[in-house]
Amino acid sequence: MQPLPELPVQLTIERLGQLGEGVASWQGRTVFVPGTFPGDTVRVHLELQGRVLRGILRQMVSPGPDRREEPCVHSRDCGGCDWLGLAEPAQRAAKQEIVLSTLEHLGRLSRDSFTVRPLLVAPRDWGYRRRAVLHPTGKATLGYFGRRSHERVPVEVCGALTPVLTALPGKLAPLLKPLAKDAEEVMLLAEGDQAAFAVNLQGPVTPRHLEAAEAAVRALRLQGAVLTPKEGSARLIGKPALRSYSPLRPEVPLYLRPDAFAQAHAEANVGLVTSAIYELGAHDSDSVLELYSGNGNFTFPLAGGAASVLGVESSPVGVELAQRSAREGGVTNVRFIQGDARKVCDGLVAEQRRFDVCLADPPRAGAPGLAKWMTALGIRRVVYVACDPASLARDAAGLVEAGYKPLALQVVDMFPQTHHVEAVMSFERAA
């Protein structure tokens, strides 16, 4: 292998990779260059990181046609909004292409073998995030992780967050100083004009921790807080469960808590749920299996058009919130099982259970083994909601190998200004 040059080399960025980095070529080799966009001409220092050749940006020779000024003072250091310097139309085109090319190259699924729907655009491109994870910096501040590192970038005001949260990092940090050295991360959550926070602790909850959190809730007029110890039960302060409504079923309340998962973009989430329900196409006589059901984000819209829904979720908090929604909304055709999806599915197979359709919304790691369970449970149609294109490609390939035909793909721009993307893909068992 030819040794890498000691001096910087000049490259032109050709496209964006799955992890949001610019991609260029050098002597027939692929080079990933963080912080660059298509059309940029740059000078970079080449480094081999494992098997990956990366270019460390040294000079911007000339910007690409879609590059713009970044409207955030933290953008060069913060790891959050890595595409803030790229115009939105170019972001959207890149996301659609990244998902499609990942399905082709990793999943061996030709884009011509299924319907590709137009990308679903988020209603707001900035100031939309209703949840955030921050970390104590050791200087009475809270911050985000830096780009490609765990270095902490102090932030007092974050324009990516919804208005009720924008200034909360700077206001909350000094009030949480008594517990900062014991905290691993601080999670913020908003719903409308209401806000709450949670703190994951490295050890047990102490009276000092409770006193500081209670004072912060009072001083900032928040709804509540959650203190989660390393072991044992969480301690709730005030009313940290924020009341929202179920997409497509506003008569059913949906509860969010800062220590539980919720989609970051409230408005785009409505589009995501609508797309998933449409692609699943459940009949009113169908039994639905929902894997990774969370707080019921998809559950109650599913239940509105099906005979029954069985939700499977590993998080006790998620199940607790979903059960509360079902009780208060008078939804009687849903049931929840708290447990690992793999173990629960193995149990359902052993019981010789059968379902008509399945919706799966797994975490970033995907749902290995999904195809095996779908076949064994007699499921005719599967909708897979993905937050990672590579996991989607792997699991889609497994479904196709098991006899399921890909039907349609809907990419959703859930995270403007970042490379992150959501996708909804449907499959049907071949006759």
UniProtKB/TrEMBL annotation:
SUPFAM superfamilies: Nucleic acid-binding proteins, S-adenosyl-L-methionine-dependent methyltransferases
PROSITE patterns membership: SAM_MT_RNA_M5U, TRMA_1, TRMA_2
CDD domains recorded: AdoMet_MTases
Stated family: Belongs to the class I-like SAM-binding methyltransferase superfamily. RNA M5U methyltransferase family.
A single GO BP: rRNA base methylation
Active site: C387 (nucleophile), C387
Binding site for S-adenosyl-L-methionine: Q263, Y292, E313, D361
Matches recorded under Pfam families: tRNA_U5-meth_tr
Gene3D superfamilies hit by this protein: 2.40.50.1070, Nucleic acid-binding proteins, Vaccinia Virus protein VP39
Protein's recorded name: RNA methyltransferase, TrmA family
Molecular functions per Gene Ontology: rRNA (uridine-C5-)-methyltransferase activity
Coiled coil, from the record: none
Domain of life, source organism: Bacteria
Keywords from the named record: 4Fe-4S, Iron, Iron-sulfur, Metal-binding, Methyltransferase, S-adenosyl-L-methionine, Transferase
